[in-house]
Design brief:
The complex is a heterodimer.
Chain A lengths: L5 E5 L4 H12 L3 E6 L10 E5 L5 H15 L4 E4 L14 H26 L4 E6 L3 H4 L5 H21 L4 E7 L13 H8 L10 H12 L10 E3 L4
Chain B lengths: L6 H17 L24 H19 L8 H4 L9 H11 L2
Classes of the chains: A alpha/beta, B mainly alpha.
Amino acid sequence: MDDARVVLITGTRRGLGRGLAEHFLAGGAHVIGCSRRPTDLESPRYRHHVLDVGDEVAMLEMFGETRDEFGHLDVLINNAGIASMNLALLTPTETLERILTTNLTGTFIACREAARLMRRRAGRIVNVVTVAVRLHLAGEAAYIASKAGVVALTEVLARELAPMGITVNAVGPGPIDTDLIGGVPDAAMNALLQRLLPPRKSTVADVANVIDFFVSKASDSVTAQTIYLGGV
Amino acid sequence: MTLPSSHDGVRSMVYEAVARTNEDLEPEMRIEARPDEMLMGPGAKLDSLGFVSLILEIEALAHERLGVTLELVNDRALSQERSPFRTLESLVAYVEASMD
């Protein structure tokens, strides 16, 4: 095995996760990705698992195969997430549970299993959250609650995993042109953008810039932090 | 690679996990590979991180050697009146029972 970093990213079929996978592949890393459906991303240094991050058995298999192939993990990026734009009064419990399972439970499982593969040689965990946690947007209660949970998880895990040399941080981008914001009406999107500095959507490059900082080997004392884009 | 099919086999696997754990511990926290070594409560030298490391090393060895996935810390273990994590010997017995 070469000395390239081993990076696991969830939700890599499309959007931000796909862009991050390509970003790390371009940097020479081995990348393990996953999504609920197959991908057309191909590289000799890319492995893809078809799974739901809320499915613990499937997640354990993915981390087990990573351990068997590489023996360790250097970077975990919890990107997979789902949203449902709806007022709380009209949000079915089933929808709430689905969002919590993917966004919070899936992130918890991934952090736990990643830390087991990182603890002997340090590591970096980055969780993707959202500016909506800070903006408290009406109509996104379930989604924001799940991501606020991820911010809290980030801060607690940072303390639990620090003795193992593992840092845990989060990045909160503004809206990115992906399926996740497909259901947001134009007027609501424009109102949101006017609250951001500068008033524009975030890009994969914006997020990758922050993640590169977090996962840098020089960032070993940067932990328990959430960096939001857009000046919120 | 032999299977730790006996109590002694499981004990030797747990003792190997002790040795691996000790590699990462400060000298005053290292534990001895002997049956009555305390793991929890009064007289225990391991801190919470050291205890976690020992459990993870045992689970990793069980997977490496036997292909067995153990989840040693669970509600059932934590609710037992006499904790299976008191001493190394009680831990060996608990690991052995978990493999059945």
